[in-house]
Amino acid sequence: MLRLANTVVGPVEVVTGANGPAQTLEAFNAGDGSLKLTLSVPASVTWLGATVGAARTCTQTTAATTCVPLQFALNTAALAVGTYTAIVTVNGDASTVDAPQTIAVTVQVGGGVPASVNAFVRPGCTDSGFPGTSGKAPGCAVDVAFTTNSQGAFTATTKDGNPWLSLLLDGTGSFRFVFPYRIHIQPPAGMAAGTYTGTITSKSTFAADNKTIPVTMQITTQPIAQVSADRLQVQLAQGAPAFATTIGLTNIGLGSLAVQSVSATGGAWLTAAQTACPVVLVSPSLAAAAGCMAVTLDAGALAPGSNIGSIVINSNAANGPATIPVELDVVAKGAPSILFQGVQDNATFVPGGAVSPGGVVAVKGEQFFFGSPLNGPAPPLGTQIVTTQVLVNGSPAPLYAASYGQINFQMPVETPVGTALVQVVRDGQTSNTVSVTVAARAPRLLLITTTGYGAIQNAADFTLAMPASYSVPGVATLQTHPAHAGGTITLFAIGLGATNPVVGTGAPAPVLPAPEFAPQLTAPVQVNFGDSFFGTKATPLFAGLTPTFAGLYQVNVTIPADFDGKGAVPVSLLFGDGTFSNAVNVEIQ
To answer: What is the pTM of this model?
Structure first.
């Protein structure tokens, strides 16, 4: 079982015209047998050499005693000033679990301190941030982050004498090898619109970082554009379905932001056009994107290799056109590939987290399914969608849905607690093997999109327990209104563990005369309203599997009549053994 002491090397500062110092990162074995590793570097990266050394005593981790050094030569003498990153793949042989994995190697040729800074902010913010709040709102301040390999001495001065410019060190310590800094630009309240200049003087033991940085702050009453993604990097196999995403342009300044045009460069594989922003469950009071761009990357008949392009969004913003670099890496069609820690619960999707027997699980990776996303049949679930399967410890698992980069499946109820091994099979080709921890329970409450609100229904009318202003136009079944103290709600969850009676793998929970007679949890659970430690606790009326569904749980609970929390109240589940779920919001009026 492959493990890495770290997954990043650098950023390493390198003098212009010179090769950087050699770097080493350690790999070790968390399983049986011995590791047989190889390293691969993209052909387009000529400045990096990677080799596997002989096993030795570990120096970078205490998780093992014997490690395999992965050695990196930085052949950077021919590189111009700038930051360069290469992704190195660590491969194992066919018997290696949790391979391949990747390491990002970054070098900063000419040092990490920026040559200049130009920032746009809006007037009218208080010293603490947004008017009327204690927090810093978008557009009121700008932070420019950079890293160095040695701690420097920095002096910030402004030509006008106002304290709008400072430099912050985000962390340091005895074993710090990378020092993260932030140039912080925030005008004091009442500072008029205009252009202001200052400087930051840097003194460092690394000669290239000794410089005077000119800083320009432009306080503007015009719109300031902020894109939802500052770059796109996608890998697709030949013949894969096109990758589609939406990029939003939001106004963090004043006035009204208007998108004037959008264009794409790089080739026919990249297209971009203005589109209506997608309908999601959001409050009308939240700042919405001023414009959205539909972006498509299509490998089509492209040969394997890297394709570079960009998207340019023109608007009336003071900070000019927004340019988004795009890279499409095309690989040959082959066997499916699972990401390291790519087996995750299907609610919070936390890499490395545990799942449970009978739980709803997602596996993430590439080349799982060549076609439009497809759902499997309603329960009882099948174990194959077209030619795609998921194997758990060598046996097919029930499937909910399959797409190019994700499959949702049920962890078989009979899976033992411990470590399970997962593979994907497509067209008779088997993927790499990835491990996942299986616990007796891994409770996760389901979320509604990205709002922070849970999938929680008011039991009286089956509406979602969210603000009344939240809705999905045209979807009457998802109408909303707040819950109230004394009212009963239903929380939907996965991973809550064993039930009595047991429902078999892939089978639907039975429809019985009353919910209290449905398969119930064998372990007692409480519902916590408010603070995770000192909140108000309530005992559910029912906690068990949802009739007709496979792997979906529900918890019916009455909000205590004396509970005085209002607005978005966090709610979570707590088991007697100390296991607890994630917290989601329920709206209470």
So the answer is: 0.90
